[in-house]
């Protein structure tokens, strides 16, 4: 697993940080019994996924594996 670069990209870090902030906001408003704030936090969580996807599409994510590289990664994952 150390040979893979899973999640070590700008897109992944940004998406996770935004989603984490959304979870914190939603959790705080859930404790305060404020449904509107809770759902606003959940929207921020979804926004984190959208931002991560958009950054990946813009080239800031994990590069696509080539045919031989993909075969090696699959063989390494099975052993």
Distance between the termini: 11 Å
**Biggest sheet details:** none
Number of domains: 1
Structural class of the helix and strand makeup?
A: mainly alpha
Question: What is the residue-mean pLDDT, rounded to a whole number?
Answer: 84
Shape: elongated
Which segments are poorly predicted (pLDDT under 50) over 5 or more consecutive residues? none
Describe the structure in your own words.
8% of the residues are buried. The model has no long low-confidence stretch (mean pLDDT 84). The chain contains 3 helices and no strands. With 79 residues, the protein is mostly helical.
Briefly summarize what is shown.
It holds the Pfam family DUF6704. By secondary structure, this protein is mainly alpha-helical.
Keywords:
mainly alpha, 3 helices, membrane, transmembrane, transmembrane helix, DUF4175 domain-containing protein, DUF6704
Secondary structure elements and pairings:
Elements: H1 10-31, H2 35-60, H3 67-78
Helix pairs in contact: 1-2
């Amino acid at each position: 697993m150390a040979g893979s670069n899973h999640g070590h990209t700008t897109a992944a870090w940004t998406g996770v940080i935004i989603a984490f902030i959304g979870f914190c906001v939603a959790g705080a408003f859930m404790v305060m019994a404020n449904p509107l704030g809770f759902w606003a936090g959940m929207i921020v969580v979804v926004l984190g996924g959208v931002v991560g996807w958009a950054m990946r599409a813009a080239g800031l994510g994990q590069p696509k594996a080539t045919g031989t590289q993909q075969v090696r990664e699959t063989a390494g994952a099975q052993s």
